[in-house]
From TrEMBL:
One of its GO terms (molecular function) is magnesium ion binding. This is Phosphoglucomutase (Alpha-D-glucose-1,6-bisphosphate-dependent). Pfam families: PGM_PMM_I (PF02878), PGM_PMM_II (PF02879), PGM_PMM_III (PF02880), PGM_PMM_IV (PF00408). Keywords: Isomerase, Magnesium, Metal-binding, Phosphoprotein. InterPro entries: A-D-PHexomutase_a/b/a-I, A-D-PHexomutase_a/b/a-I/II/III, A-D-PHexomutase_a/b/a-II, A-D-PHexomutase_a/b/a-III, A-D-PHexomutase_C, A-D-PHexomutase_C_sf, A-D-PHexomutase_CS, PGM_a-D-Glc-sp. Residues 40-180, 211-316, 323-440 form the Alpha-D-phosphohexomutase alpha/beta/alpha domain. Belongs to the phosphohexose mutase family. Residues 492-536 form the Alpha-D-phosphohexomutase C-terminal domain. Its cofactor is Mg(2+). One of its GO terms (biological process) is purine ribonucleoside salvage. Its EC number is 5.4.2.2. Transmembrane segments: none annotated.
Amino acid sequence: MKLSPLAGHPAPSAILVDVPHLVAAYHSGAPDPTIPAQRVAFGTSGHRGSSLDLSFNEAHILAITDAICLHRAQHGIDGPLFLGIDTHALSAPAGATALEVLAARGVDVMLPENDTYTPTPVISHAILTYNRGRNSGLADGIVITPSHNPPRDGGFKYNPPNGGPADKTITAWIERQANALLESGVSAVPRIPHARALTAATTHRHDYLNTYVQDLDAVVDLDLLRAAKLRLGVDPLGGAGVHYWARIAERHQLDLTVVNDVVDPTFRFMTVDWDGQIRMDPSSPYAMARLIGMKDRFDLSFACDTDHDRHGIVTPSDGLLPPNHYLAVAISQLFKTRPEWSAQAAVGKTVVSSAMIDRVTAQLGRKLYEVPVGFKWFVDGLLDGALGFVGEESAGAAFLRRDGSVWTTDKDGFIPCLLAAEITARTGQNPGELYRGLTREFGEPVYDRVEAAATPSQKAALANLSAEQITLTELAGEKIASVQTHAPGNHAALGGVKVQTAQGWFAARPSGTEDIYKIYAESFRDRAHLKQILHEAQTIVDAALKM
């Protein structure tokens, strides 16, 4: 990848988004549903786009919200709908639009007290808490967020009564219905003025913040953490958890400092990501440069992305930990310190996550459940306790309560951060130090991801690649052990391919939002071996796409 000269530096004013223009475009822009880029499209995490590109406008939100109302009616979902927004500039107007439709449709909506921002895991937690023990009148939720995407973007996610990201069956139906509404004209979508919607009998207030914060000791050992008196630092990156961290510190008596509590929809306080864009990605050393610079002030520090469903862990010894490193440490420690978890509880990972996780899981005597990219694949296992911990290489994770029951079925950025502190308090070593111990035992892998341009037809070809199209027998000087186009855990299609040898692997899959494909690779030898894997992977994929 080509590194921008701005990477890791404070955002200059020239790249800041014009918020009034962005919001005006949300209301005035008229998307053309005959243009694919302007239609509703649910990717791995909801519909995303920008009003400036006519891909996230009022018409989209009217159509998606009404489609969700129709889905609820069709499936008998008649409990409350938990609605939350993050701090992106387009989230508040989209939230207002959604409420106007929900109120007109007579849906009971749970808005946050004091109109606080609401993180994604808090919505999942609220849905599951409400639905516990119920067989009817079930709740669901909407989270309005583009996650860590740049400030110009907006996003809209639906979580059904299982609390997790909606699966493909649901999102495909909502997508089709919403696009039909766009085509016929959204003027037919029922809505009432926002002021009336706020005072409607179906609009209620819910204390998301305190309900979630007070329950945290059910999932992390906060007594142990409090007794250790660790000095903790956190940067919410201007996101939806900005008011949660201070309450966590107060409620659980932790020595935790919020290093930045500013909310600004331009995100001008960020350091710029690798490509010259502002992106609130806690796994990026460029976006996290400011917190990394503070690493010696704290025993441990951490950050979350804008909707707080991803985590970043910073230690004095190692700086920002790559997500794969921390996932391996978390798995190693959790399954040793949660005696109430089922002995059959497995480890869930995506196929593009580190093979270090495989080795740690095998040593623990636990089953590995490997799935395609997308957190939706973990929902059922978290719900019934079959999966103790699940994680993605992109720094998304969730795990069970200490008693072995479900906490959330969506990614939760808070609990991996607090777990890192629990682990440090319990072992006297931070996660970076513990990871080095794992490498002495299992080897030290090197991991990377690269991108390459691909046309829509090439992306489709890659998504439908068969194992027979990979004709080579060796990768980087090693015999190919397996070629997978379906995940070993649930046999779902990868939408790409994964090739493995004894000491390395690569996976290739098309992007859901850009005309590129991504190659993930790892070597348990060295960086030269990794470079060779990446080079040959690109050659293999390019050849397969020409067939």
